[in-house]
Structure formats: C-alpha cells, structure tokens
Amino acid sequence: MGKLIIRNARVIDPASGRDEIASIVVADGVIEHVGADTNSPHADVIDATGLVACPGFIDVHTHLREPGREDKETIASGTRAAAAGGFTTICAIPNTSPVIDSQTGLKFILSRAESDAVVNVIPYASVTRCQQGEEIVEFGDLVHYGARGFTDDGHPIMNAEIMRRALEYSAMFDVPILDHCEDIHLAGEGVVHEGFYSTKLGLKGIPPLAESVQVARDVELAAFTRGRLHIMHVSKRQSLPHIRRAKAEGVRVTAEVTPHHLTLTDAALESFDTNLKVNPPIGDAADRDALISALLDDTIDCIATDHAPHTDIEKDQPFVDAPYGMVGLETAFPVLYTSLVKSGLVPLRKLLEKMTIGPARVLGLEPRGSLAVGAPADIVLLNLSQEVQITPDFFFSKSFNSPWLGSTLTGAVIMTVVSGKLVYSHRQIIEK
Ligand code: DOR
C-alpha cells in the first residue's frame, strides 16, 4: 500500500488536543505524520481545504442483524452505512438469529466481516446461552475466538447471581460486560417513557426506575467483583448519580448515550411515529438535559448509535405492535452536530472525543480513536456547513427507520478512510 496525504484540513484529534490546519500523511495503512505539509512524489493527495479531519468514529453498539434478519441489514450493508456515517470501527451486537453465543457464531461474524465489511467489525458474544439469562456462555473460549465484550443487549440480565458471575469472568478475562439495564417487571407492558405524554397519548409508560434500579444493582456488583461494566444506552437522569458515585469510588464502570436520547424528548411522540419507539424509551426534557450535562462532565464516556434496523413493514404497525429501535449510523453526526454543536450546547471537540477516543477507551482499542503516529489510519473528513437531506435514498443501510426522515440537517460526512484506504467518498462506497 502506498502513501496518502490529506492536505490543508482542520485536524481535530481529541486524544492529543490538536486542533489546527495541518496535513496528515499515511503510509502503509498507519499514520506517519501529522503537522506541516510535506511533499511526496508518489502519494495520493486529498485536498481537504475547508474540511475537518478527525479520527474515524467508533460505535460500540451496532445491530447488524446477520445472521438471521438479512432483510433488515447485513454485515455488507451495515458496514457501508457505517462508512457513510464516518464510522471506521463498529461493534456487532450478538442478538442475531441464532444468537452469537458460541465459537461457531463468532467465526461466522469474523469470516463475513473479512469478506463483506468495508469498515472494522468487532464482535461481541452474548453473556448467556441464547440470551435467555440463565446459563453463562464459555467466556474463555469466546475471548480466545475474538469476542471483545459480552452483552445480552435487547434483554436485561434479571438474575443478579448470573450478573455477578459474568462480572467475575469479565475481571478474569479483562473484557467488559455491556449492560442493557431494564427491570422487566417494572417495565411491564410499557412502550414509552412514563410521564405526561404517556398519559396524554394513552400509551403505557415505562418508569425511569426500570433502568435506574438495574444501574444501581450492577455498579454495586461491579464494585464487589472488580469486573468491567459498561452501561449501554443510558436514558434517564435517575441513572446518572449511580454512575457518578461508582466512578468516584474507582469502580470500573463506563457508560454510553445514544444520539436520540441526547437530542429528542418524549414530546415528539405526539406524532405517533413508530420510529421513535426505542428501548429504553426516549425520556423527557429534563432527562435529555441531564444526559448532555453528563456527557460534558465525563460521567458518560461515549456516544453509541444503537443502530437498530427494522423493515418499514414492521414499523408500519400500531405503536404498541411495532418493534423497538431506529437506525443511527448515518444520521449520528449530522443529528449531533445540528442539535448539540450548532446550537452551542456541546463544543465540537467534545462531541468528536465522545465518538472517537471515548469509545476506543471503553473497549481498550487505543491508539485507534486517535491520530497518533503509528495508529491505524482511520480518518473521517467532515463538512460542517453542508446540509444533508434525510430521505430514504440517504441510507446505505437496508432499513431507513429513522425519525429524522424528511428533515434537513447540517454536517456532512465527505470521506471515510479505513487503514489508509478510501472506502467512502461523496456519497459513494469505494468497493474493494
Ligand atoms: O431499541 C432497541 N432496539 N433497543 C434494544 O435494546 C434492542 C434493539 C434491537 O435489537 O432492535
């Protein structure tokens, strides 16, 4: 592989604090130099004048649906959506059909990623056999075959004894347990956040306690076991004090928040748009404000999309019957840039930190997530003033279940580079 020079970009590398007009030189798939411009006669050159260059985004929470629901997404389509969204590494949630709970499943994901993916795919395995919450998987075996984390996401682990043992294994093998916190008894038949709008709209509510009691339980179990706990899709302000306290006490806990929980409130449910039906449900304005504060004060370590593709046939049902989830890879940056940065709520550097080095640290992937010399050359180029129209055609994903359909946002992903190779440029995937 030859050289690539990205010239005249505004280079923002949150890991090092760099924010300046500079050039990035890539050689053999890794970062060779960032700084003053250099000349190299045989290099490919990208003139990035007017663009931001930063480390490629990392998503620790992506539903790729393969194997089992290839009508919604595949590793091929999901990684193309990732590239179009500026993501260079995504982590595959194992709630597929079958669930990834064995070395066979892991080998399938890794081999499909090898043949079909255009960005890096990191597999997780489930914590319990078939995600049934009863029998713990073969942790050591699965770590050996490439699992970088364990999660029953889509379902909570209701049995605290199982969670305790999972966290003990996580300490032993130094891998995180990624935790979907939801007490199913408290959640009951609820489909939206319990509050003013659930009452007004006549939809059954899920109380915030359904999330926060499990966060409280699991940080306590993490403290006791010294395991590595990652709280997924934190959505309610009541969960935050537990995470803050645990972090202050040195418990090994990290947390993520989704773009939708950071930018939407349950007031939007007045539309009855089933694309707003997600689990955990979107909270109220006080929840959204508290999540933004928690992002700013580092209680929350990273932004994760929870990209959850569903067909339009499934989403085109009465609210109570539609499945939970929305796609997120391609809208993440424009949504967050428009709602948080343009509005002055979050500095650009902070947003980029939470999409690059923040998630890299959660999984221990550094120097990925940075532009350090020697790091894999995973880079995204952004145009902060370009508008994007969110239409079904905007999506490389097989699904387009997005509440932003029909909106115009600001902040476009222009090019995505993975290990020094241009994989996406100006709305085109550059095929292998
Ligand atoms: O909204 C969601 N969709 N939340 C989950 O926990 C699972 C996910 C899915 O798999 O569709």
Short key terms for the protein model shown above:
single chain, 432 residues, alpha/beta, Urease, subunit C, domain 1, TIM Barrel, 2 domains, 9-stranded mixed beta sheet, 5-stranded parallel beta sheet, globular, binds (4S)-2,6-dioxohexahydropyrimidine-4-carboxylic acid
**Contiguous runs where pLDDT drops below 50 for at least 5 residues:** none
Structural class: alpha/beta
Q: Please describe the biggest sheet, giving its number of strands, its sense, and whether it closes into a barrel.
A: 9 strands, mixed
Ions, cofactors and other bound molecules = (4S)-2,6-dioxohexahydropyrimidine-4-carboxylic acid
Overall description:
This protein is an alpha/beta fold and 432 residues long. The protein has two domains: 3-53 and 377-429, Roll (Urease, subunit C, domain 1); 56-363, Alpha-Beta Barrel (TIM Barrel), CATH 3.20.20. It contains 14 helices and 19 strands. It has helices at 75-84, 103-116, 139-144, 160-173, 184-187, 196-201, 209-225, 240-248, 259-263, 285-296, 312-315, 332-341, 348-355, 357-363; strands spanning 3-13, 18-27, 30-35, 44-47, 52-55, 57-62, 87-92, 120-123, 150-151, 177-179, 192-193, 205-206, 229-231, 253-257, 302-303, 379-389, 408-418, 421-425, 428-429. Strands 1, 2, 3, 4, 5, 16, 17, 18 and 19 form a nine-stranded mixed beta sheet that branches. Helix 4 (160-173) crosses helix 7 (209-225) and helix 7 (209-225) runs parallel beside helix 8 (240-248). It is globular, with a radius of gyration of 21 Å. It starts with a strand and ends with a strand. (4S)-2,6-dioxohexahydropyrimidine-4-carboxylic acid binds next to loops.
